[in-house]
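Might I ask for a little of your time on a matter of protein folding? What I wish to show you is a protein chain and, alongside it, a tokenised description of its three-dimensional fold. I should value your view on which stretches of the chain appear to form regular backbone elements. You will find the record immediately after this paragraph:
***
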Amino acid sequence: MRKITLLFLLLANSIIAQKTVKVTEQLVKVKPNSTQEWLFGFASGDEIQFSFIEENNKNIAEFSVTEFPEVVKFQEIDFKKVKKERLKVQHTQVYKFQVKNTSNEELKLSVFISRNPSTKETQNFNTAVKWVTEQDTVWNSVTKDVVVGYDTLLVQKTRKVAYYEKKYEEMALDKTQRVNAKTTFDSSTSSVFFSLPKNEISENETKKVVAWAYWVGVGKESNEYWQQNRKMIVGAVQGATTIFSSPLGGIAAGAVTNMVLPSIGEDVEYFLVNEENKKLFLEEKPIKAFDLGKGIAAYKRFTENNLLQGKYFIMLKNDNYVQPIDVNVKVSAIVEHKKYKNETYMDKQITPKYAKKIVSEPTISTRKFPAIFDYKRK
């Protein structure tokens, strides 16, 4: 009785193990001059059964079954069908089924793939495949030059140092210009021009404009306010270290940020331009001005490097039909004066010392491959 029971259990396990599990069944169209692939995972001990049949009896150029990565297990060339072929799986791995169509016609394939598990444990094996990206590190021994110390050397050198430095105000323009009324026979526009102090640069001495400002004021009212500003600003900052002598110099130097301006009186339109835009202004064409406005009095400071040299024009325009106006224009520049001398100094030069040494360096490679669904890196 015991022998009969044991025989029954063995037969039952055998029946379960031999039960066929369908992996895929599909009808596939393979385009002309193309390749079609199927990837599935199989468990160790599985028996793979597969059929690839061309429904219209056309030739298939090539069919192969490859165990990943490149172990060809089955191959057929120039055929119409592969039917119920079998392969034994030696160890769990991904298998690639590949069809190549080298003709100019589309193929219509009937595809059937199944597996016969060898044990009960692999009956429900997941044949799905996932793509895995892994990085591998390989350590290589290489000989390199390695820093083992440093040599220090003191070298005598010469450099230019400033022993004298002073900033001062230089008046570039102080002029009163009459601008006629609009009803006169003469033009109701006028202009004044000025050139900023020219930079002087030599080996041991430099004079450079570092900032400048201009003032435009109309008539007696603006002159009165100019004098008020002089008393308040210049009088408050008098001393040996003062680098300016006028309210406009204070604005140019950045020591003064505001001046008092009149609110009653005749006004003027003004435009600060270069020579090219002066011509356009006189031709009543559109211009690009560095500054412009309209008022009884106004001022502006400039420190941009591209505006610290050259010749400029202040265009004036009177919109009063009856009354001509007298416009006072002032320009002050701040000049930086430096004198240099040669100075010797010791420069510390540090030079690394090298020696040959065997070191280990990592080489990291990235690979992407198909793996069974339950794959885990060891």
Observations:
- DSSP finds four helices and 17 strands in the chain.
- The longest strand covers residues 129-179.
- Helices lie at 2-17, 219-236, 247-253, 275-282.
